[in-house]
Design brief:
single chain, 158 residues, Pnp Oxidase, Chain A
């Protein structure tokens, strides 16, 4: 018998993770973004990552259509961005500084890393889809990440 969703959520909250915002765009050129902790590296050769996106979100449909996404690693001072992209706001990009990269996908400003990816595979993952993306461009900046642990934001600073 599997654990309950509450037990599972409590268990996973004990695993600290970095915080990312995955961005994409849909067929009507509307930008989409969602805060994601379900991200990991998959392969060095070729360079691939995976993200898990809930099927009921607009971002899910945007990834399916565009076949591209950007993973923006948030820095320590970007908690507000994480909260904004985790919200149900109609226009999450309003007053957010960004440029565009691969296929016109938003690159959030001030992030530690941006990975511009083209989807190579997608898989069913229950209430989420698992998207595998080959990294075409990586931009790395200095700074410290924001972390998420036990339902709250943390830093790696002592």
């Amino acid at each position: 018998m599997p654990v309950s969703s509450e037990e599972f959520r409590a268990a996973l909250s004990r695993f600290p993770s970095g915080v990312t915002v995955v961005t994409s765009r849909d067929e009507e050129n509307r930008f989409h973004g969602i805060t994601v902790s379900a991200f990991c590296s998959l392969s060095l050769e070729p360079p691939r990552v995976l993200v898990c996106i809930e099927k009921t979100t607009g971002s899910h449909e945007a990834l399916l259509w565009s076949r591209t996404f950007v993973v923006n690693f948030l820095s320590e001072g970007q908690r507000e961005l994480s909260e904004r992209f985790a919200s149900q706001l109609d226009d999450k990009f309003d007053e957010v500084e960004f440029s565009t990269g691969i296929d016109g996908i938003p690159l959030l400003s001030g992030c530690l890393v941006t990975l511009e990816c083209r989807i190579t595979n997608s898989f069913d993952g229950g209430d989420h889809s698992i998207f595998v993306g080959e990294v075409e461009t990586a931009t790395v900046n200095d700074g410290d990440p924001i972390l998420y642990f036990r339902g709250d934001y943390r830093s790696i600073s002592a």
